[in-house]
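General statements about sequence and structure are easier to judge against a single worked case. When preparing material for the folding task, we compiled for one chain both its residues and its C-alpha cells. The amino acid sequence and the C-alpha cells for this protein are reproduced below:
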Amino acid sequence: MASSSLLLASVVVAAMVSAVSCGPPKVPPGPNITASYCDKWLEARATWYGAAKGAGRKDNGGACGYKDVDKAPFLGMNSCGNDPIFKDGKGCGSCFEIKCSKPEACSDKPVLIHVTDMNDEPIAAYHFDLSGLAFGAMAKDGKDEKLQP
C-alpha cells in the first residue's frame, strides 16, 4: 500500500494503550495479546496510504471489515498493521499511541490510532501503514506536507 518514496518519511515509536482510552475492545484479548506496554515505547516504521488528509480506505477497514473508518470511533485515525500488530485479526480495533521524532517535521507528540487492516510489507519488525490523516497528525503544526513527501 505504501510507496517506496514514503519509507524515509518517519521513524515512529509506538505504545499500545489500554482499551479504556479508545473504547471497548473489539475482540477479547487472546493469550498473545498484550493489553498494555505501559510506558515502554517500541521502535517502529510508518508509511501512509490514500489521500494526504484522508482516512485511507474511505468506506471499509480492509481485513478487519469495519465500515466508514472516516467516522466515529476511528475518525480516520486508522492504520494497517503488520503481523505482530494485526495478529491474524486479533489486533483489529487495537489502539496504539504513536509518535515520530525523525525527520525534523515530526512533533514528537503522541497520537492515537486504531488498527483497521492488515499489512504484509516487511519494512520493520513493527510497521504501521497509516491513513494520510493519521500520518499527518504526527507532524508539527503546519508541517504535515513536509512529513508527507
